[in-house]
Amino acid sequence: MGKKFKKRAKPELMAQVRATKTKVSDKRDEALHSEEQQLSSTDKLVWAYKNVKIKGKIVVTEIVTVSYVTKIKGKEYTVIYYDSTHDKILHMHIYKSIYDSSDIVVPLPIRKKGNQSKLLSWAIKDIRNKWDFYRKKFYGRSRLKYEF
User: Fold this and answer.
1) Residues contacting 122, CB < 8 A, separation 6+
2) Dihedral sign from CA coordinates of 53, 54, 60, 64
3) Which of 80, 93, 140, 147 is most buried per CB count within 10 Å?
4) What is the pTM of this model?
5) Spatial distance between the Cα atoms of 41 and 24, rounded to a whole number of angstroms
6) With contact defined as beta carbons under 8 Å apart, do 81 and 88 qualify?
7) pLDDT at 105 (0 to 100)
8) How far is residue 78's CA from residue 6's CA, in Å, rounded to a whole number?
9) Euclidean distance between CA atoms 50 and 52, whole angstroms
10) Backbone angles phi, psi at 122, to 5 degrees
């Protein structure tokens, strides 16, 4: 007979397991890194993450935000953003409209496998590939005419 495995009450996600096994010995070495990329004249992608140097390698410890921001009538609005600040699980926040600044949290993890660095890359690629789709949905929820 093979090995017996313990049954768990609920399965752990790979993102949770890998993130909790990343050990940071000194929090003072943790650095916040942020960048932004222009997607169009009115749209941009902004991301920020915390990292630490362990044995000469830079390790992403937390995804602070990967957000899609659009400018409507001279004012900037965040349409969606990803973060992993809660239990190191990547999840999405969707803003309702320009009139309602509350957000909807998508409760299910977006991606189940990978460390924080891979999840960060995945979130950036997702917004780069789908920002026009997210903009159309945001305009629809805001009852604005989509003119692009």
Assistant:
1) 90, 110, 111, 114
2) negative
3) 80
4) 0.76
5) 40
6) no
7) 87
8) 44
9) 7
10) -65, -45
Q: Tens digit of pLDDT per residue, the chain (148 long)?
A: 454 544 443 333 333 333 333 344 445 578 999 999 999 999 999 999 999 988 888 899 999 999 999 999 999 999 999 998 877 788 899 999 999 989 888 866 566 667 899 999 999 999 999 999 999 999 999 999 877 6
User: Which pLDDT does position 6 carry in this prediction?
Assistant: 45
Type of residue numbered 126: D
How do the domains of the chain map onto residue ranges?
A: 14-141
**Residue 8 burial by Cβ neighbours in a 10 Å radius (0-12, 13-18, 19+):** exposed
Radius of gyration, alpha carbons of the chain: 18
Three-state SS for 77? strand
Contacts of 54 (CB under 8 A, 6+ apart): 23, 24, 25
Strands of 91-95's sheet in order across: 31-38, 43-54, 57-72, 75-83, 91-95, 103-106
* Integer Cα distance of 111 and 70 in angstroms: 25
